[in-house]
Specification:
Length: about 450
């Protein structure tokens, strides 16, 4: 008989796994999608950012829903909706329909990620919580890296459309396991939904992202680019103003006054912006410039997957024992060095000598960082704030990746080539180093990372 704790951990991992898998599996299929629908780099960016846009904009509302109505109920709704939208992606008849389905899929993902992690933090405590978070971050990190492996095989042997149909199996398994978990319908009295905050956040993210992606095609002087950029920036400023005054804010700004929470989210920006941009361009580069198949490109990420699988839980446990600061400093530095090693990957690209060693180093950096980073952020707030705290941190991570991918065209230019790829790798390494430096300067540790009774 499986214990409740083990069931919670498995459910949390599977629920987040499909969300993170779908965020990464699409990258290896982008050249095939572009060949079928056209659209070039712009469609490729939208296929990734459409998902991240709705995920980043709504994950904060979903975190509040998780705290208010219960993790189990929100997870169940998210899983069903994710399955429906995955099938919509699989049967999309044209590019714009695929992008729309990806946007709707991101809405479902917003329900899955914070609820699954909050389920862990409300079930486990102390060192057991650190180990559970380590397992969660390890497996969800693996989903982000192994997505291109599965996607590559499906693209080359069957069809890119099956990368979305793949979600149905883990969703069904998770729903069965979820049926065995009991939880009160509400964990606290229901609070009004912050509709103004959600609307301003969506507009504040959507406008600049639209401008960043479309400027390569239309130019910055075009009103179609300039107007959404200005409106979006004003909306984002309005979002921050509103959240500081709203009676029930979806992003309580007071949490950022807690040192490790605030600094941890700053480190999250650099770390996940680097990952989003780095792996997006790396995957396209191996296929479109290196001439490798989707399958080979996907397998090129296996060394990073192996490093995460082997070491993520270990570093999560060590962070629970010694504190996260050292790991959050060293990990991004190691990953940044790995991305710099990819500067030597020029055609004719030798996978074993130019790519694999760099990916191993990147994977080690990820394994060192992901669990301690999550522990630092969530360990600094009260347990009853776990839902909104994890939602904010995940929103920061997704928005960082969203904006970074939108910037890809600005850094690369109109066509991905060797100089463009090398510029991206330098930018990515710089973001990683900045995340490590911020952690060293800002994170504070005194013994194991435990949530304080009252935020300061």
């Amino acid at each position: 008989m499986i214990s409740r704790e083990h069931r919670v951990l498995i459910v949390a991992i599977l629920a987040s796994f499909v969300a993170f898998l779908d965020g990464s599996i699409v990258t290896v299929a982008l050249p095939a999608i572009s060949r079928e629908f056209g659209g070039g780099l712009v469609l490729q960016q939208w296929a990734v950012d459409g998902y991240l846009l709705s995920l980043g904009a709504l994950i904060l509302v979903a975190g509040s829903l998780s705290d208010t109505f219960g993790r189990v109920r929100v997870l169940r709704i998210g899983l069903v909706w994710f399955g429906i939208t995955s099938l919509a992606c699989a049967v999309a008849p044209w590019g714009s329909a695929l992008v729309l389905a990806r946007v709707l899929q991101g809405v479902a993902a917003a329900l899955l990620v914070p609820s699954s992690l909050a389920l862990i933090t409300s079930t486990f405590s102390g060192a057991a919580q650190a180990r559970a978070i380590g397992a969660w971050t390890g497996w969800t990190g693996i989903a982000g890296i192994m997505g291109p492996v599965l996607g590559g095989i499906l693209v080359d042997t069957l069809s890119w459309r099956l990368i979305f149909g793949l979600n149905v199996i883990p969703i069904m398994v998770t729903l069965v396991l979820l049926a065995g978990l009991d939880e009160p319908v509400r964990t606290r009295p229901a609070a009004p939904i912050d509709a103004w905050g959600a609307g301003l956040a969506a507009l504040g993210l959507g406008g600049p992202v639209f401008a960043l992606i479309e400027q390569g095609r239309l130019g910055w002087a075009s009103p179609v680019v300039f107007v959404p950029l200005v409106v979006g920036l004003l909306a984002f400023a309005g979002f921050l103003w509103w959240e500081a005054r709203a009676p029930h804010p979806m992003m309580p700004l007071s949490l950022f006054k807690i040192r490790n929470f605030g600094v941890g989210n700053i480190a999250t920006v650099g770390f996940y912006a680097a990952l989003g941009l780095g792996f997006f361009v790396f995957t396209l580069y191996l296929q479109q410039v290196g001439g490798f198949s989707a399958t080979v490109t996907g397998f090129a990420g296996i060394p990073a997957t192996a490093m995460l699988l082997l070491f993520a839980t270990l570093f999560g446990t060590l962070a629970g024992r010694y504190g996260p600061r050292a790991f959050m400093t060293v990990g991004p530095m190691v990953a940044g060095a790995g991305f710099l090693l990819l500067l030597g990957a020029v055609p004719p690209i030798a996978l074993w000598s130019q790519v694999v060693p760099a990916v191993v180093v990147i994977g080690l950096g990820l394994a060192i960082t992901v669990a301690p980073l999550t522990s630092a952020v969530l360990g600094s707030i009260r347990p009853e704030q776990a839902g909104i705290g994890s939602a904010i941190n995940n929103a920061v991570a997704r928005v960082a990746g969203l904006v970074a991918v939108a910037l890809a065209g600005t850094i690369i230019g109109t066509t991905l080539d060797v100089p463009g790829f090398q510029r991206v790798m330098v930018v990515v390494a710089g973001l990683m180093f900045a995340a490590g430096l911020a952690s060293w300067l800002g994170i504070r540790t005194s013994g194991p990372v435990l949530a304080p009774e009252h935020p300061e």
